[in-house]
């Protein structure tokens, strides 16, 4: 990774989640997914709808960092309108759970027993409704067995490919889990029986390293896994333009 740093590689890889989406709302939660959604709109897919992460639909991405006035406001994005988009399935979010299990069930609520948690976090927030209404992808900045854990997550906030958790045993109509981008690799849910599989490895990372840092068996997308595609000079320039405050440099510790 001598010419492309990890943050830029992750932004470029995560942007592929929205590259071929129809005209929907692309929501990237936290810095790198937000930049990935912005990059997907400006570089691949201008039909995507994005917000300024506050209250406006915008034509041009608003950089993360100090508040900036949108160059061109396309409309108001209050909760009611955003939920109308969400419930209709016209949104694809990339979220950052604290735990993710082999089913794709995600947790952002508590660590430990819910009655007496070791750590209390956000609560389930919008995860339950998001997971059964529209596509979801994931960014995991630290790929390890505490995050990609053995067994089931401590508190199921987001539905996954676990029939035991489906109401009446019926798969939710909007359940659609797509991409997982971590600091080690890119994965999806296209393994046998919706299993999580590795589809590319970041430079210098082996499959064994990824498996050793995962709490459940992983499938492989190919016998010889490719190296995660890196952005070229034009793509790097666009990423830099979208992040003039260079907040992406604060995500991974050297």
**What fold name goes in the CATH topology slot?**
Glutaconate Coenzyme A-transferase
Which strands sit side by side, in order, in the main sheet? Answer: 1-5-10-11-12-13-14
Question: Strand count, sense and closure of the main sheet?
Answer: 7 strands, mixed
**What percentage of amino acids are in beta strands?**
15-25%
Number of strands: 14
CATH-level-2 architecture: 3-Layer(aba) Sandwich
What pattern of helices and strands is seen along the backbone?
A: HEHEEEHEEEEEHEEEEHEH
CATH class: Alpha Beta
Overall body shape:
globular
Number of domains: 1
- Summing up helix and strand content along with how strands pair, one would put the structural category as alpha/beta
Descriptive account of the structure:
22% of the residues lie in helices and 19% in strands. The chain has helices at 6-15, 31-44, 79-87, 127-133, 207-212, 233-242, and strands spanning 25-28, 50-51, 56-58, 73-76, 91-95, 99-100, 106-107, 110-111, 119-120, 136-140, 177-182, 185-188, 197-201, 219-220. It has one domain: Glutaconate Coenzyme A-transferase (3-Layer(aba) Sandwich), CATH 3.40.1080.10. The strands form 4 sheets. The chain has a 7-stranded mixed sheet with strand order 1-5-10-11-12-13-14. A 3-stranded antiparallel sheet has the order 2-3-4. It starts with 5 loop residues before the first helix and ends in a 12-residue tail after the last helix. It has 254 residues and is of the alpha/beta class.
Key terms for this structure?
254 residues, alpha/beta, Glutaconate Coenzyme A-transferase, 7-stranded mixed β-sheet, 3-stranded antiparallel β-sheet, 22% helix, 19% strand, globular
